[in-house]
Design goal:
With about 170 residues, the chain is mostly helical. It contains 5 helices and no strands. The radius of gyration is 18 Å and the shape is globular.
Amino acid sequence: MISRVRLSIGLIAAAMFLSAADATAQPAAAVAPGRPALEQRLRQRMAEVTKQRLGLTDAQMKQLEQSNSRFTPQLTRLIASERETRQQLRLELTSPTPNQQHVSDLIDQTISLQKQRVSIVEAEQKDLARFMTPVQRAQYVALQTQFRRRAQEMARQNANKGGFKRGPR
């Protein structure tokens, strides 16, 4: 049972990683053959695990899918912006002569992005509250966190093995 749960979480984490990667992905022509089908299977498995773990009805799952289709793209774009801002800040801070104004602007941008994230999460939680109980919402947040951590773990493992090729940081 535990190994099935770990496998499910691993598959879901991979789906989340692939979905997040799409925000900053290469052009569609560079997508590996079969990847869209794999992503679709992973998303389906993620939905199955979410439904089962949270005890959601079919109607709740349909509403969750609609909610996710509204909020996931916003969060994905925000995550990409946060990553880019952190990279710019890291580059500026490691420069022999950091530009003080640019660092200040990047700090302000980081704070602005954090505020945007809170606004999106608040809106998402209000939306989820329409069809989920508070316990289901809390379980959903915990499940998302678990999936995200597992995806990050898998990405690190694959990066250490040379599995994912990333551009310069």
